[in-house]
């Protein structure tokens, strides 16, 4: 996590570059030595001839992967709603001030082109979508590179997502960004810090069963095996009742929830509907009346960005672990 002192240092460095100091030629020399670089992204080899300078990111989690590595100066801007993220509470909040908020709506090709993007960093269902025509292939045709969030990688079975364990996806993206932007020292330190923080979470005496509720009333939208939430639950000492579904975020059935009788429900809190609306629905929905989590009032709210691949995952694991340790044996 970054401090204001670090942010100030970064701003000073940017100021020197803007004043025409000798930093620019030195950076160019470094770039020529480091590039080209090739990384593996969702099974595809991506080669970069130079460090991207005008990156457009989609959604708070992807934006914060860049900011956590101190890469605000390489961003043309970000797209995300104003009700996500609680950006004033994160250690890299100063990075948000350096980058430009391009839109509070959805990522479009026009937004990226107007920002003169040379790289779009998004993911399947995190900005990329065939229905809207906003895809890596579409950007490639326009001469703009793309990088796909590893949590969202397609498995090759239709639109199913997930090709690696969710935390491995986080570490993969941080390592790849370290190579792409020639900040491997930063990415190595961040990965090591995250692994150490997660390893330090006290082990659970037992593993309470957990249902992740994202949305949906006719059918619940929840976290499968390859969603970051699945591994967050596991590392926190719980068991995701839908962890056998080989997808990331996926629609299930209420019958399955009732049959698996979770001891805890985790609500994914984001724009619409709000967490309290979701809680009201869950506690008044007749089929769930006898489910242990509802019967005992064990409903825990977590922020959206805690539960998708992001640099907030280690803190999310620690917070959920503390709650799960309070759940008594049945």
From TrEMBL:
Stored Gene3D superfamilies: Nitrogenase molybdenum iron protein domain
InterPro entries hit by this protein: ABC_Transporter_SBP, ABC_transptr_periplasmic_BD
UniProt keyword Signal present: yes
UniProt KW Signal keyword: yes
One of the Pfam families matching this protein, by short name: Peripla_BP_2
Positions of the Fe/B12 periplasmic-binding domain: 54-330
Protein name: Iron transporter
Lineage: Bacteria, Bacillati, Actinomycetota, Actinomycetes, Kitasatosporales
């Amino acid at each position: 996590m970054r401090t204001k002192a670090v942010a100030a240092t970064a701003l000073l460095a940017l100021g020197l570059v803007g004043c025409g100091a000798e930093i620019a030629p030195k950076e160019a020399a470094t770039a020529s030595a480091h590039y080209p670089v090739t990384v593996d992204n969702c099974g595809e080899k991506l080669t970069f001839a130079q460090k991207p300078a005008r990156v457009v990111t989609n959604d708070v989690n992807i934006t914060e992967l860049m900011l956590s590595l101190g890469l605000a100066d390489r961003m043309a801007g970000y797209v995300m709603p104003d009700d996500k993220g609680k950006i004033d509470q994160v250690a890299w909040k100063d990075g948000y001030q350096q980058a430009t908020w391009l839109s509070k709506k959805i990522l479009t090709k026009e937004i990226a082109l107007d920002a003169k993007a040379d790289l779009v960093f998004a993911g399947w269902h995190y900005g990329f979508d065939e229905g809207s025509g906003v895809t890596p292939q579409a950007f490639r045709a326009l001469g703009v590179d793309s990088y796909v969030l590893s949590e969202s990688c397609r498995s090759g079975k239709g639109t199913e997502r997930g090709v690696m364990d969710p935390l491995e996806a986080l570490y993969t993206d941080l390592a790849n960004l370290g190579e792409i932007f020639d900040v491997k020292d930063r990415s190595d330190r961040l990965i090591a810090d995250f692994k150490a923080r997660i390893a330090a979470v006290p082990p659970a005496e037992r593993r309470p069963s957990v249902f992740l509720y994202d949305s949906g009333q006719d059918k619940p939208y929840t976290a499968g095996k390859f969603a970051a939430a699945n591994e967050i639950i596991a590392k926190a000492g719980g068991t995701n009742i839908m962890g056998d579904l080989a997808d990331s975020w996926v629609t299930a059935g209420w019958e399955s929830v009732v049959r698996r009788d979770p001891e805890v429900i985790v609500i994914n809190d984001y724009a619409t509907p709000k967490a309290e609306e979701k809680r009201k629905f869950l506690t008044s929905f007749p089929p769930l009346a006898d489910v242990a989590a509802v019967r005992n009032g064990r409903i825990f709210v977590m922020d959206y960005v805690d539960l998708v691949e992001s640099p907030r995952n280690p803190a999310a694991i620690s917070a959920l672990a503390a709650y799960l340790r309070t759940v008594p044996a049945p």
